[in-house]
Amino acid sequence: MAQSNNIKKRMFEGEEPVRDQAGAENKDQEKIEVTFEFCDLNPIDYHAIKHLISQLFRIARPKSSTNLAPTSNPTPPSKAALKPVLEDLDVGELADLVLSDQKEWVGCTVKCDEEDPDPYAFISVLDLKAYQDKKSILTLTNYLTSALASSNPSPAQADELLKVLKESLQPEGSGIGLVLSERLINVPVYIMPQLFTQLGNEIKHAQSKNAPGFNFDRLLIPSRVFTLSPNQDSSQDVNPTFDSNTSTNNNVQKPKKNKTDANLNPDDPDQVGLYHPEDQIISQVELFIVPLISLERKALKKRDRRSYTLDY
């Protein structure tokens, strides 16, 4: 990986609809062309990456405790308030690990131009076994093992994933790479397949050079999920999904609107759905997918509820 700051790894041109002051799409106006650049990880992105990590690992809270005063100007990630996360999870340390020496091998951010101070998305991977003495990694692994072990009745996939997780973290274990990836909601989804493809190529290159911190043969991917509140209609539109029949000029799938019930598992009593459409693609090739629903989240029966799952 190049060491220069803000190297243009890859560029995508997207279109964003022009919206009026009320936020509604104005079809009579021309669309705005937006060029997205894949840039090297840079220490100046610390606060933005810290915020995006807190967004990835956010836990459900009553709306009254998280509502902020409405604003017409979006807050950049580096200045936004951190999301509520697991107790004792040091998201600052996770951001430091992402920006450590391994950034010379893997990971990138997505920006609109070189002069843009804040990334709109990022991706990287951390070797859980190599960093298991770090407080943030220890908090995550302890939470995962306790959550998987406390399933009652315990799903077969949770049992198997718990076994693999424990064995992989042993000194003689094969190791697991924790993929950290998050984006702002207005970032076009069609850049995500290329982002994951690039990460995979960088991991292979780092392993071929025997770079430290890449001794793993499995990936653990935390993903945000959602459930429906009792008063919510499952037929409503949610995040766009991928349409395999259409493509952009960059040969990347364009997103299309999807219905909520299409993202839900009909066999799941908790009706857990994948929050990001890119996770739908990941779920097609994963070995395990285990929704981790906190007790606090289950108690929010009449509130909007979000948590995260683990794709493996």
UniProtKB/TrEMBL annotation:
UniProt name for this protein: Mss4p nuclear export
Start-end of Polar residues biased regions: 230-253
Example of a GO cellular component annotation carried by this entry: nucleus
Bias-annotated ranges (Basic and acidic residues): 10-19
Family: Belongs to the BCP1 family.
Annotated region described as Disordered, given as residue ranges: 1-27, 230-274
Encoding gene (name): BCP1_1
Pfam families xref list: BCCIP
PANTHER family: BRCA2 AND CDKN1A INTERACTING PROTEIN, BRCA2 AND CDKN1A-INTERACTING PROTEIN
